Amino acid sequence: MKPHVVIGTRGSRLALRQAEMIQQALEKQWPGLRVTLEIIKTTGDKILDVPLAKVGGKGLFVKEIEEALMDGRVDLAVHSMKDVPAALPDPLTLAVVPPREDPRDVLIAHRASGLEDLPPGALIGTSSLRRAAQIRHLRPDLRVENLRGNLDTRLRKVREGLFDAVILAAAGLRRMGWQDAVTAVMDPQAFVPAIGQGALGIEIRKNDPAVQELVTPLHHEPSWRAVTAERAFLDELQGGCQVPIAGHAAVNGGTVTLTGLVASLDGATVYRLTQSAPIGQEEPLGRDVARRLLQQGARHILESLLGQESLHATTPGP
To answer: What is the DSSP letter of 4?
Structure first.
């Protein structure tokens, strides 16, 4: 067994908390193993004054960490799965998905009990096109403005009255112990979460069986299957942070159920579909939901935002 492994992580309070959770789990699983953290600043961390969709590209919060992994500077990386592009660099693999935290979005507001209770013209902050489109669809009378920054920064801006509300991931608040700040939890069918939201991913080098052996006990199969369905959906759509795409999968017994959504930027047009498949068919399920949404009309949204040449000429499966 390797006596020492290094985890690559972003430096935000939440990213460090998540990496520390994996650090503690590994040290508990393997007494005598020493696990240290290496903080790596990513492109997404460096550019804070520009909306994510305008920065462009994929992997804004993982690219530099993956480079450190490929260079051998770190042995594994801990990511928020919603930051991880559908396609990974060839030398790397997603080895483990630990048990998933609450995947839902939550509303933080001091003068309302929920999204429906916010007064007309209320200002909501978010850096996510997915959240902005769904807010505009449900409440076109609200104002939505870009809000970047770490979790504590966004909470502070609501407390200070700079925004009437923000929408955040429940998982991050729960991991930080800040769940008391939550005003309302959003129904994941009505307000569909991001692909992989609430899940962590442990990325390693494919040719490193020693690290694979260390991390395997942290794996949670139902979480893996749900995330696999969501990521197959995203991969088939070839989407990124420049398109309002959402997906939420859940495993119940021998069935995985996926809700996929594609919306226009203004929220006026929303394509949504829920389908189920037997366990073991997660990837075909995700791809089929994507193809059916493309056929229903979502293709026009993606073509207008990404360019026609970037899309498959796909048709629904059986």
So the answer is: E
Q: What are phi and psi of 139, to 5 degrees?
A: -140, 75
Q: Which two tokens stand for residue 226?
A: 């749900």
d(CA 63, CA 85): 10
Give the dihedral sign, CA 111/113/117/118: positive
Edge-to-edge order in the sheet of strand 255-263 = 245-252, 255-263, 270-278
Strand (E) or helix (H) holding 16: helix 13-29
Select from 291, 290, 299, 257 the least CA-distant residue to 275: 257
Structure tokens at 40: 């790596």
d(CA 227, CA 139): 29
For residue 75, give the DSSP letter: S
The secondary structure of residue 296, as a DSSP letter, is I
Measured from the Cβ of residue 180, the count of other Cβ atoms closer than 10 Å reads 6
Taking the model in full, what pTM does it have? 0.91
The residues facing 124 across adjacent strands are 144, 165
| Positions marked active-site | 83
What's the rounded Cα separation, in Å, for the pair 261 and 238? 14
Tens digits of per-residue pLDDT, 220-271?
999 999 999 999 999 999 876 678 999 999 999 999 999 999 999 999 999 9
Contacts of 72 by beta carbon, 8 Å cutoff, 6+ apart: none
